[in-house]
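=== Structure Prediction Worksheet ===
Name of assembly: unnamed complex
Input type: mixed (protein and possibly other molecules)
Chain count: two
Listed entries:
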Amino acid sequence: MPLAADIDARALRADFPIFAPVGDREPLVYLDSAATSQKPTAVLDAMDRYYVETNANVHRGVYALAEEATARFEAGRDAVARLVEAPREGTIFTKNATEAINLVAWAWGVRNLRPRDVVLVTEMEHHSGIVPWQIVAEITGARVVFAPITGDGELDLDWIARTLREAPVRMVNVVHVSNALGTINPVAEIARMAHEHGALVLADGSQSVPHMPVRFADLEADFLAFTGHKMLGPTGIGVLVGRPAILADMEPFLGGGEMISDVRTDGCDWADLPWKFEAGTPPIAEAIGIGAAADYLRHIGLEAVRAHERALVAYALDALEDVDGLRVYGPPDPDRRGAPISFSMPDLHPHDIAQLVDRQRVCIRAGHHCAKPLMRTLGVNATARASGYIYNDSADVDALVRALHAARAYLGG
Amino acid sequence: MAGLDDLYQELILDHYRRPRHRGTLAHPAIIVDQHNPLCGDELHVTVCLDGDRITEIAHTGEGCSISQASASMMSDAIVGHTTGEALELIEHFRQVMHREVQADEDQLGDAVALEGVNKYPVRIKCALLSWMALKDGLLTRMVDQQESR
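=== Predicted Assembly ===
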């Protein structure tokens, strides 16, 4: 059953080699795209073609092959910048979203945070939005403070407003869509409050950029981090988008080749943006791959992706109610949540749930989702998590529910 | 349940549903907490000794069927042994989990049923959690005793 008019998940699967039938094996029910997405042929081919047709280092050679490699690499940047409507000089390639956040923590945080300054993070933050700031706080004497969540798994905006008024907050690191709760956070509203009090805002778009229209300007954040492998692209590449004026004032993160305009024995000058923050030979094939992924997503249309996933989540929240005692975490309203759905079942550990549903080739995640502060707030050690994407439909949800019933029957005993 | 019978043997499910030695001892000689960073599971183990002999073990905490059953089976297997024998038994179980040796049923008792877990790399940590907790506790006690001499 197609969930929304704009996307036919079954038809789209033809673009993804991993879903090709293998003999009489049960079909793959992949519901772990919040961990990593599958890759369409368009991405794999673009990366292959680079190695086969134009392999050369970028920004160095004067020969035609190197010019072509450089052109494809920079075209990858343009495609990513178009996806989130960011300026290309503010679109920096990193290894992943984690490195993008670390870049800000080190290049901005170490030089700007003072003792007693506050870095505001949230209780639903991924460890990648917590640990870099804890490390930098240790160095600078700043404090990392956690914004609490409400019973429905939403941020307490009043608390954030009060803290911004009363504490010397310099940076707010907020996840746009929670990987563990699914909550869509009002980044623009938080950014407006933060800016009134002189704080900068870093939004973690790892779970939003692949799944919904995200315009950098509309977020009103100063930085946006996301990663290639969750948006149909390869691993090994992430993106930091930043306001060029702020990036221009920052010192580099990593030093080396590529990121300089001149090196003398008594010092050096940095390259222009964005290359100032891209030391060493970059992940070239991966930049081309993430560019192809961005083009693929734009071709489908992020509005359509969002409509499809909203319908998928609504269908799943309804279907999961059939499973006795199953508890879903996060906002009950599908309009307020992205793709990930975390849940628990009484007397069934998430590890056992994930292991048992795998019998029907249903892939879901079990664990703390790199969000241990959140798990403590929820009062659990771990949850199970199902997360869909463009290639999932209601039949996948039905398969999950059947597999959960079977798991309960098997272990409930 | 094809493919998972190695993992979820009836004996394991029985220990999971009716764990032995569950709880906390009143005056333990050894107290140890262990957690599995992979899943966040936590385990609290207490041990009573008479001289060098382990007279009782109790375990509490939250965990999956494998870690819970393993704690129950371990307690069964260890009680009555000396601390030295317990360390040898723990080492044997560790080797079984890493497929270095075949499980010795005479030594392990019901815990022999956990041998099949070694085909599931992610779950080996679950099975080992309680055993490594006890090992930590026993070794810490030995160090403390040497220092107090």
